[in-house]
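Sequence in, structure out.
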Amino acid sequence: MIFRRANKEDLPAIIKMIANDTLGKLREQYRDPLPKAYYSAFEIIDGDKNQQLMVIENSEGEVVASFQLSFLQYLTYVGGIRCLVENVHVREDQTGKGIGKQMFQWIIETAKKKGVHLIQLTSNKLRPRAIRFYEGIGFKATHEGFKLHL
């Protein structure tokens, strides 16, 4: 597996993964060509030194997974840095092959190198398999999350 920063050419594969689940089908617009808003968002993410939009390639060079890391400076924990993990997706035909575990090993090692004191993520309550996965690799549900869609 090769971990690398995503590039513009990866966007169709990334958006296809995101849109290929029950919740993604309701909110994403995967089509050819992709809406320009995805490319605009990519430029902002790619230009921010505190963001890493990543893909994982298999030995054939195919994108099989994607995730985004945001490194957030806090005052708490004596000015600690948190790593927020978002948009974790493994291509449907690649699930159950250990890619998720490899992904989080890589995330944890990367976070340690950056001096991160806490890795956090959220998972929709409608994704019980994902929640079990995160619990199985050591994440704890310690807080209630709240969102306000605008």
